[in-house]
Design a protein that fits this description.
Order of helices and strands: HEEEEEEEEEEEEEEE
CATH architecture of the largest domain: Beta Barrel
Distance between the termini: 66 Å
Structural class: mainly beta
CATH class of the largest domain: Mainly Beta
Largest sheet: 4 strands, antiparallel
Number of strands: 15
Number of domains: 2
Shape: elongated
């Protein structure tokens, strides 16, 4: 029985060109066609396969569509924030920086609402209630979660 289980396990791993370790009940996988997605602990694909994906953070994971735009899915694989950003990162403290054109960055919340306008030349993740950004004139400053510059 143990040998059969070991053989099945080895065959299951060969289904994917790549499979990450499970984290919080999901694992990132890559199929033989180069598409990325998520599986649950039973091996069921969650939602669809994508051009690229990132790990779950704060209940959401970033996904890239065929147009190379990023959005976010929840742990069921449901797209909850449409793929419309050319760059983004992981959620931190309920917010994530995004850009639609690489020239100006802002922050969205977990519903996809733009809560800090895209007015910064560069942006970093929030940590301890603040994030480092670069203003239009090239000054590096910290902002709070409302976008107000912290002195």
């Amino acid at each position: 029985m143990a040998l059969a289980t070991m053989c099945l396990g080895a065959n299951a791993q060969k289904k994917w060109a790549y499979q990450a370790d499970y984290d919080e009940g999901t694992a990132i996988v890559k199929d033989k066609d180069g598409k990325w997605g998520f599986i649950d602990e039973k091996g069921k694909v969650l939602g669809q396969m994508w051009r690229n994906v990132g790990y779950f953070q704060e209940g959401l994971a970033r996904v890239m569509n065929e147009d190379e735009k990023w959005g976010f899915v929840d742990k069921t694989g449901t797209l909850v924030i449409p793929c419309q950003y050319v760059q983004t990162y992981f959620f931190s403290e309920g917010l994530v920086y995004v850009t639609t054109d690489y020239s100006h960055y802002g922050y969205i919340d977990k519903t996809g609402k733009l809560v800090i306008p895209m007015i910064f030349k560069e942006a970093k993740s929030f940590n301890g209630g603040k994030a480092k950004v670069t203003t239009e004139d090239g000054e590096e400053v910290y902002i709070d979660k409302t976008g107000k510059i912290i002195k």
